[in-house]
């Protein structure tokens, strides 16, 4: 039966009981407004662990001035209903005052990677992500934590924090879940009108173009990015924040595409900022010699 916990002391006590009984813990951190992408993480966690904890916490530290903190969709009752159907054990739903009491002043700085891509237009965002994830890991003490590839830069940041601070958490990144047209599922899709949802498909089309060009032998990143930009710019409601092809570990732009590099983009559709990415691969030609 799903248990909702709101206090730090209560979650620590419940986790202590799990650990005393040598139960493995899978953890899915979220900001709520759950969709099939989140649920795919939950199902993987259920398969691989004795207990599953999901956090629902709209983290104020990762929202900048004039961003959508107050408007961010909050659907807690529906979220709990979905998680109950998935047989999740615990939902951790603390208030901001519980996570950040008076006097809280600690930050986590990640040199280089926090200021690239989304970090350029959202200064401080990844520091907020790192702080909340570090706190949640300390409270939930998971064996495995699950994240989606759609938030690629976030996964790189979290892996870096885990490695640098020697945290005993295995990070698993699962594929992006899309609707039948190809739009990456996101809680912020709720902001889009039906017309804007159709316009937003330009992100996916641009990523498909990049992979198609790589399949055809293209390696020049500038050439590929130019074709991606054409697709986005053909959509009148779209405004590019960035389009980049990057090294998957350093997040640095690459001049020539190699296997495993990532095509990533952030685009505003109307007032809604959307992100998406794809890991580029090469199709190897196989030649059969007939004797």
Task: Describe the structure in your own words.
- It contains ten helices and nine strands.
- 34% of the residues are buried.
- The chain is of the alpha/beta class and 291 residues long.
- The longest helix has 16 residues, at 125-140.
- The strands form two sheets. It has a six-stranded parallel sheet with strand order 1-4-3-2-5-6, sandwiched between helices. Strands 7-8-9 form a three-stranded antiparallel sheet.
- It has two domains: 3-174, HUPs (Rossmann fold, 3-Layer(aba) Sandwich), CATH 3.40.50; 187-279, 2-Layer Sandwich (Pantoate--beta-alanine Ligase, Chain: A,domain 2), CATH 3.30.1300.
- The protein has helices spanning 8-20, 36-48, 76-85, 96-99, 118-121, 125-140, 152-164, 194-199, 201-215, 221-233; strands at residues 3-5, 25-30, 51-56, 90-92, 144-148, 170-174, 238-246, 262-269, 272-279.
Topology of helices and strands:
Layout: E1 3-5, H1 8-20, E2 25-30, H2 36-48, E3 51-56, H3 76-85, E4 90-92, H4 96-99, H5 118-121, H6 125-140, E5 144-148, H7 152-164, E6 170-174, H8 194-199, H9 201-215, H10 221-233, E7 238-246, E8 262-269, E9 272-279
Helix pairs in contact: 6-7, 9-10
């Amino acid at each position: 039966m799903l248990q909702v916990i709101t206090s730090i002391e209560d979650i620590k006590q419940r986790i202590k009981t799990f650990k005393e009984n040598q139960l493995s813990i899978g953890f899915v951190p979220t900001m709520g407004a759950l969709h099939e992408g989140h649920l795919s993480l939950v199902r993987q966690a259920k398969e691989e662990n004795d207990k599953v904890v999901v956090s629902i916490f709209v983290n104020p530290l990762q929202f900048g001035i004039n961003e959508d903190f107050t408007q961010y969709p909050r659907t807690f009752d529906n979220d709990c209903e979905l998680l109950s159907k998935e047989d999740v054990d615990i939902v951790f739903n603390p208030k901001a005052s519980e996570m950040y009491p008076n006097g809280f002043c600690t930050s986590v700085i990640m040199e280089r990677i926090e200021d690239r891509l989304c970090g350029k237009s959202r200064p401080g965002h990844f520091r907020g992500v790192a702080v909340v994830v570090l706190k949640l890991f300390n409270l939930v003490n998971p064996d495995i934590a699950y994240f989606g590839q759609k938030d690629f830069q976030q996964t790189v940041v979290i892996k870096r924090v885990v490695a640098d601070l020697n945290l005993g958490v295995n990070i698993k990144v699962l594929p992006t879940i899309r609707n039948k047209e190809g739009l990456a599922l996101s809680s912020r899709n709720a902001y889009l009108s039906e017309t804007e949802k159709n316009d937003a498909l330009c992100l996916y089309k641009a990523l498909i173009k990049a992979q198609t060009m790589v399949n055809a032998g293209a390696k020049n990143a500038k050439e590929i990015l130019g074709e991606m930009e054409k697709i986005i710019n053909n959509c009148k409601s779209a405004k590019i924040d960035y389009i980049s092809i990057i090294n998957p570990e350093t997040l640095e732009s690459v001049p020539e595409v190699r296997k495993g590099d990532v095509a990533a983009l952030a685009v505003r559709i109307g007032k809604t900022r959307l992100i998406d990415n794809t890991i580029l691969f090469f199709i190897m030609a196989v030649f059969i010699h007939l004797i």
